[in-house]
Amino acid sequence: xxxxxWGGLTLAGLLVSACGNSVSVPELASDFVAxxxxxxxxxxxxxxxxxxxxxHDDISFDFATPEVDPGIRGGxxxxxxxxxxxxxxxxxxxxxxxxxxxxxxxxxxAKADAMTKFDAIHRMAEEMYPDRIEIAYTADDFExxxxxxxxVAAIGIENGYVIGRDLSLLQTYHDLGAxxxxxxxxxxxxIADSANWRENLGDVESEHNGISAFGEEVIAEMNRLGIMVDxxxxxxxxxxxxxxxSRAPVIASHSSARVLADTPRxxxxxxxxxxxxxxxxxxxVALDAFVSDTVGVRNAEIRTLxxxxxxxxxxxxxxxxxxxSQRAEYERRMTEIAQExxxxxxxxxVDHIDHxxxxxxxxxxxxxxxxxxxxxxxxWSDASETLNVTLELVRRGYTEEEIATLWGGxxxxxxxxxxxxxxxxxx
Length: 427
Prior knowledge:
- By secondary structure, the protein is α/β, with parallel strands linked by helices.
- The chain contains 15 helices and nine strands.
- The protein has helices at 11-20, 25-49, 80-86, 104-128, 139-147, 168-175, 213-225, 236-245, 269-277, 288-291, 294-308, 324-340, 346-360, 387-395, 400-426, and strands at 53-58, 90-96, 133-135, 151-158, 178-182, 228-230, 251-252, 281-285, 365-368.
- Strands 1, 2, 3, 4, 5 and 6 form a six-stranded parallel β-sheet that branches. It has a three-stranded parallel β-sheet with strand order 7-8-9.
């Protein structure tokens, strides 16, 4: 982990230096404030110059309607106003459909649900706000649109279940703008085993031992069309298979480092190395449970406390019915919980970036939020706070070139290589 320094000294070193040289604490504080302001100005300048891409933002089925208008500042973590406020230039808006039982009727339903979300993204960019945002279909489009002063919308599909068993749907989705497909989600599908298999769907731990024979056909067709293969959410065996089968580099659109948060949704160091050797990129995800193992414990302790006091276990706080002694107990225990299991913040998220960079190099790491799908950490709770990620990277000594690489350069490099492979295969 890169440690923040001031003039070559850590904060602890500064304090020792101050004591040894009779420098007063107020003088040290004043120097710190001045340098902190300079650091923020530096980060703001870098943030304005680099192309920032968030590779995973979910949308609802009523997105781009009067009920969920992306052009106004509302309850969503990502809307056009918050993107502009936070300096987030581009976002992959995600066509997500959950896994259900694999029947012809459910395949048809999944396709219809996918089309609803495709229609919403196109409606936002082409009918509602064409002067503010435009859909990117190529890597060059990202740079052209941003240079022209508009926000950039890109499209990813989360869960290959939306193609059912119909390979021709890949062409349909590509034509609509899909530039990556997450092969599976929670639950196995016909393409790949999931990292989180579901007993209620009849899953066993491994159905295909990785990628299925049909899944290999899917990956080949994705390569031919120019759709990035996304290995987030799939099992380790499936991820290793996907790297082996794909003729183009793969991406993990929203995963983090398993050594720092031990969940099957994250990637262990072997997977990171394989991804790096493949020329791919892992987009580290700012979803608290994938950033820190403490989240589940913290939430369980809060639920236990609320249940004991007769409150709903949900996050909605209604303390009006508590007695004075109960409220005092609630506030005391909540303070203890906050001290024992601190909230997950931007610094903890950037720890994952540091780890991946140390393991596989700066050229294979990117950034994602999973906003409106569970994502967000303290300090990057919505798109309006995007500058804080750049600020934390600057604190740790990343250069402007490195920050540009992390924020979008690596993902666009992979997309360009995917485009090149597709062009070769179509000759």
